[in-house]
Each structure stands twice: as C-alpha cells, then as structure tokens.
Amino acid sequence: MDIALAFTEAGSGTPLILLHGNGEDGTYFAPHIAALARHFRVIALDTRGHGKSPRGSAPFTIAQFARDLRDFMDAQGIEKASLLYDYLDESRLFKGTAEKEFRSRMNVTFVTGDKDTDAAFVKEAAAHGLVNLKGHRLVGGIRASIYNAMPIEGVRRLVDFMKEFEAHA
C-alpha cells in the first residue's frame, strides 16, 4: 500500500471494522463507537483520501479501496488473529491464556489444561509441519506466532489441526 490509513480503535475482542461512505470519514461513527466497543474491537477507518488518510497515488476505485482494506487487515493481523481466537473461544479443549482485552494479534497463547496434553499437541503438530508452537520455557503452554510472515493459510492449517486433535483427544 502506498499510504497508511488513519483509524480510530476502541474496545477489544472480535474486530468490527466500520467503513464510511463516499465523502465521509471514520468520525461518522463517533456516536456509536462507545456502545459497540463494549462488545467488539471497533476500528473506524478513514479510507483513502478521506478524513486523516492521505490520497496517495493509486486511483480512487472500489477495487483500490478493497485492496487498501485487505492490506490494512493484513498489517493489523486482523483476519489471522480472529480466526485463531474465534476457534479458541469455542473450543472445549483449548483455552486462550490472555484476557480478551489484552490479547495479542501476533502471539496467541493457549493451553489444554494438562501439561502432558500440551506436550502431545506440540509434538503431533510438529509431525504435521506446524513447528515452534512450544510455549515459554517458564510459563509452558502453547504459543502461535502469527506475525506478518505467517500467511493466513498457515493459521487455517493450525486451526484445522487443532480441530482434528480435539476430536481425537
């Protein structure tokens, strides 16, 4: 992306991205952000050439706005973190260790509740090409680092493997 999009962020949990119409900006949603932030991680975005976001050199097209949104979400780790946290929130076996308001978008920590099961998961995951999941040496558990170098496909593979492991646990 040739520009950095301006945005306002409030709350925690599942991301909710608010996109304004043409000729408006993220302040359009100001009256609603506090209420929504009680339930979501609210992101009010200023699209290209609107509000505090610069116009940049790319054309003003719907396709460009869509690319900008995709790039913004990638840079924020939104899709990857949401995919993994959504699964953790519904899993019977795996539990996230960070409270929702303090969750990292880049390092997702979780446990099964049993150290031996954690170790078995890490070992089996490695056998399936999912490596470096062992948690901190003092804290234990499991840690998935989903920085920018980790593609969304890698997170999908991890979640699919977690579902399979849970089904056989």
Characterise this structure.
The protein is of the alpha+beta class and 169 residues long. Helices cover 39% and strands 18% of the residues. A 4-stranded antiparallel β-sheet has the order 4-5-7-6, with helices on one face. It has a 3-stranded mixed β-sheet with strand order 1-3-2, covered by helices on one side. It is elongated and about 55 Å long.
Helix and strand topology:
Elements: E1 7-10, E2 15-19, H1 30-37, E3 41-45, H2 62-76, H3 78-90, E4 95-96, E5 107-111, H4 115-127, E6 134-136, E7 140-145, H5 152-168
Parallel strand pairs: 2-3
Antiparallel strand pairs: 1-3, 4-5, 5-7, 6-7
Helix pairs in contact: 3-5
Termini separation comes to 43 Å
Which band does the percent of strand residues land in? 15-25%
Q: Label the overall shape.
A: elongated
Average of per-residue pLDDT values? 93
Strand order of the largest sheet: 4-5-7-6
* Rg (C-alpha, Å): 19 Å
Sequence stretches where pLDDT stays below 50 over 5 or more residues: none
Tell me the helix content: 25-40%
Could you give a short account of the major beta sheet? 4 strands, antiparallel
Q: Number of helix segments?
A: 5
**Tally of DSSP β-strands:** 7
Order of helices and strands: EEHEHHEEHEEH
